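Researcher: Here's my situation. A collaborator sent me these components and asked whether they could plausibly form a single complex. I don't have experimental data yet, so a predicted model of the whole assembly would be a useful starting point for our discussion.
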Amino acid sequence: MCKIIVIGAGAAGLAAGQRLRQLGHDVLVLEAQDRIGGRVLTQHSDDGNVIELGAEFIHGEHAATWAAMQAAGQPLQAEDVVEVGQTAVRRIYVLDGRIVAGDSPFANEVERWKDSLDTHQHDDTTDLVSVADWFEQPVLAGDIAALIAQDRIARYEAAPASRLSVTALRREHKQHQSGGRNFRVTCGYDRLINLLAQGLNIRLNTPVWQVNWQADGAEVVTDDGQRLRARHVVVTVPVSLLQMGMLQFNPPLPAAKRRALHALEMGQAYKLVLRFRQAFWPEIDFLVTQGTVQTWWPLTQQQGEAALMSFTAGPAALHLSALGEAGAVARALAELERVFGAVVREQFIGAVVKDWSLDPWARGAYTYTAVGTADARDVLAQPIGPLHFAGEATLSNGHHATVHGAIESGWRVGEEIGSAKS
Ligand SMILES: Cc1cc2nc3c(=O)[nH]c(=O)nc-3n(C[C@H](O)[C@H](O)[C@H](O)COP(=O)(O)OP(=O)(O)OC[C@H]3O[C@@H](n4cnc5c(N)ncnc54)[C@H](O)[C@@H]3O)c2cc1C
């Protein structure tokens, strides 16, 4: 019998496995896919270009991911734009085909609306006020700055504004401790994943479909019929898959745990990269448009090529998904053409697309906190007998939906098991 089985080799599973290995435990990591990393998915091309189809930024100089890359001597590139609470200078908006600078009165008005969510007095003991409720009056009155602010808040969380809890967002913003600056991992985010995986016993292509458990241990059943016994099992499978019953628990998880699991909601995201012979856009960090494709940013490319990454999240991501890959690329090109003209098609070389709603081992991007689900993350994080739960969804300190949050959750479980009597 192996002492500990970790299900899933994403950031959370690898961090848990690594912490337990360092504590001297015998750990086996079972991963469904033929690769590690989960929602970190880096594409390296032969000519040295790096495209992040999943996580792209390290959020903050206090994040576990930042510390890990510093310790490994890996270069990070700081973004000038700060997401929370400060005016973005190199973010530009496109309104009705017109480019509006990031330091214009209009852009400041967007930031003011965004900040209002955190600064205004707001008494919602029922936790039933959504971001859409919060912005309802100004949006109905046709205030475009309020509409864009609402859209940006919801998109960042990959959520529909009508589901996202204002109370939870405010709490999470207050608790968020990782710092405000964004960094890119120039060598690729997968470098971090490989560091986390060093020395671990990982079995790829091994989906687990059932966990039979009792007070003193568990049996893990894999797709190919293997039955593996362990004293502890760490579950890091995305909540979307747990909600769909893709991993069965026998006996079923207690009712409180199931309620928490189903209360959490998985946001959607669609990443689409357009490659061009050369750049035709001004010096920008972010371009925010009003189309289906919402945010664009330039990627650093080798060999004189140029590329724009786009991030579309929430209901708009499902909209793009419904168009199919070719339809989504056509839509993205058409929307850029409205801003920059015919040069878009003249310079276009090709596209790379990742639709997270269709990824069979994620079925979404990351969780957001919906109205009325205040304590769901804490309940989900609690161990039950030999079962331990990690993954981005189990963080209630505002670090969910991030790689550093996933790592923190893995460490938490590592300590939990490390300190348990075996
Ligand atoms: C488009 C996108 C952009 C993002 N941008 C950022 C960003 O810029 N910065 C940031 O910090 N975070 C970002 N995130 C969020 C971040 O990627 C995730 O929060 C984090 O990677 C989740 O890690 P995890 O270990 O919890 O889950 P996962 O990475 O999903 O790992 C779970 C693993 O379990 C495996 N698995 C699933 N089911 C089974 C099974 N039955 N048996 C065995 N294995 C199974 C999966 O294959 C997967 O490898 C982004 C995510 C997306 C999708």
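Model: Some features of this prediction you could bring to your collaborator: The first helix runs from residue 11 to 22. The chain has a mean pLDDT of 91.
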